[in-house]
């Protein structure tokens, strides 16, 4: 089987595409995977690092205002579609799988009426690319029920190290990796690969005032941010956490954004969390966390309201209640889909089988 995955631009689009690719390769080493992207996205580094071939097309971002770029859009899109079609034909692609973002739009138009394609939507509120692509797709997959019409709920494909993580079994090893005592409570804080300045600021105040007492804070502050000038036996700051499976195994509770991949991972491994949605975009991060809140697996607070006072008044009592933490963990796990990669791979193989 020959598969073209289109999910360039951001890690939120690229990571599930590569996780699907891993699952397809795991099933059959002869499966050929080609990733579609542009020279402007993170795929330039992420795709080759995972061992997959990357085909580049011109970037066609969607202008949000009436500018000269908007007038140039039809010509740029036509050229990108033409080049994508050449890639599909030249590689004899059996099926295209799009994950949203501006790379997916040319892929959907190039595949339409010629090559079967699947749309995967990770967020509760779809972007324009997937709203367009879903209209003519051979199959549509989603993570949050009701995101797109006629979609199958598969969840968000995860790395095997996360999907198969046994937190209890790895706890001692994970704590040792980060130099954390096995007996203490651990709160993991992260804002994505680039960090989150508002979270960093509040955590700095929490550590400075020793609000969490003996609780250890494992903090990924972002490799583009300055290292916190803080010293505490209960604070472990890192610019970036390479092995998130170990971080999840070491943690008892999480403070984080609510991007689609973050929510998918935390529910899959059964970690309770305080979600602080990114205050920008179209509000999809709040919607992403909504099913977790409904299940009782997490709490949510607006970015502007997240403060050391909130930590003191809300999180400190929560962290002291072991029974509540255990219940939240079970509730989070109850809606997780650690088999999402397998579910999506089944769908892709069924669609590809119609051509082959």
Could you explain the architecture of this structure?
The chain has a 7-stranded parallel sheet, sandwiched between helices. It is globular and about 60 Å long. The chain is an alpha/beta fold. Strand 11, helix 10 and strand 12 form a beta-alpha-beta unit. It is built from 14 helices and 13 strands. Helix content is about 45%, strand content about 15%. It folds into 2 domains: about 170 residues, Glycogen Phosphorylase B (Rossmann fold), CATH 3.40.50; about 170 residues, Glycogen Phosphorylase B (Rossmann fold, 3-Layer(aba) Sandwich). The longest helix is centred in the N-terminal third of the chain and has 23 residues.
Gross CATH architecture of the largest domain = 3-Layer(aba) Sandwich
Q: Please, how many helices?
A: 14
For CATH, the homologous superfamily of the largest domain is named as Glycogen Phosphorylase B
Strand element count: 13
Amino- and carboxy-terminal Cα gap: 8 Å
Beta-strand residue fraction: 15-25%
Low-confidence stretches: none
Class computed from helices, strands and strand pairing = alpha/beta
